[in-house]
Design brief:
Blueprint: H1 4-11, E1 17-22, E2 25-30, E3 33-40, E4 43-47, H2 50-59, E5 64-65, E6 75-79, H3 85-100
Antiparallel strand pairs: 1-2, 2-3, 3-4, 4-6, 5-6
Length: 113
Amino acid sequence: MITWAQVVKLAKAYPGVEETSSWGNPSLKVKGKLLAVLKDEETLVLRLPMEMKDFLLGADPELFWTTPHYDGYAAVLIRLKRLKMAELKDLVQRSYEFQTRPKPKARVKAKTR
């Protein structure tokens, strides 16, 4: 089974990732943005784009799941006992890229006179 220590080790290899807490649970953030939370000893919450969340939920519901609390939120719950290290590496990288991608600049409307 994947442990929180393994998640932390993988994530901290990326620039700016820090170990912190969120709502009393161990978590990882980059530039103040949440990457991952250890919900309980068997469940990891990972921030991912909504389209990826939807895909994962459909692809392997025994590994990836959600609750009403996370509906409409770009995060998926992962059963650590079913997760493989190669999958974790890929998911942590995708979460990091999701949280550090440049945000589109807001368009400024031209003033009309």
